[in-house]
Amino acid sequence: MQTSIEIDHVEKDGKDGIQVTFSDGTQAGYLVGELLELRPKRKALTGPAKANPPPPARASTQASAARRRATHGKANQADKE
Description:
Blueprint: E1 7-13, E2 17-22, E3 27-31, H1 32-38, H2 58-80
Antiparallel strand pairs: 1-2, 2-3
């Protein structure tokens, strides 16, 4: 019966390499540049993902705060008079 081979341990090796130990006792060394070449090509998104809408604009929040301060200031002045 065959068993699947898994990664047991990974260590950094130098500035741009890794050393991988597998469950069957074998080891392999890789350069990060080699691994990046194996990565599948990805397409850029043309718009925001539907599941993650962009956060609300801060400008509107700051405008609301300025209006509250202005209104609150006018109320305080009327109380003093």
